[in-house]
Predict the structure.
Amino acid sequence: MSKLSKAKRDKRKKHQAKRPFLRLNDQQQVQNHAVLTNEEGQVVAAIGLQGRQWLLSIGGQTMGNAENPVPMLAMLKHLANVQEKEGRKVELQYSEGLKELVTALAQEKGMELDAYLDELTAEFQSVDAEAGEEDQAQAPAADAAESTEAADADAEAEATPADDTKPQA
């Protein structure tokens, strides 16, 4: 080896482009494909792609992952509809890639994109309606149970004489 070989090698390495290398256990970056924002511009929920997994993030926390983003997109659209019914202004934006994917699935079923998403969100609305009916059915039963317990407590209080001389436990 010549005396200059180390200097030549160092010079060559210095001019080479830095090549990234994948570290062990290093996560791939998440690419956002759908974002639900409120009127202040804050992100409420998002759908992202990490490698081959679609991730659903709500409130800054990852809530789940799947191989198909369509149910998650329907969930975000339903969330946007609920927020708008409550008087909050929200905006759902999604990428062209996700839009093309959902459009292709809609065309397989012979539907337009918006009609297909509305059909998927209708499933969430029916679940909400069933839960609301169940809550309403349980509410009168709970009110009746509370009134019965209150009446029993009043009757018991009237039946036992209040004796101030004895310490009460």
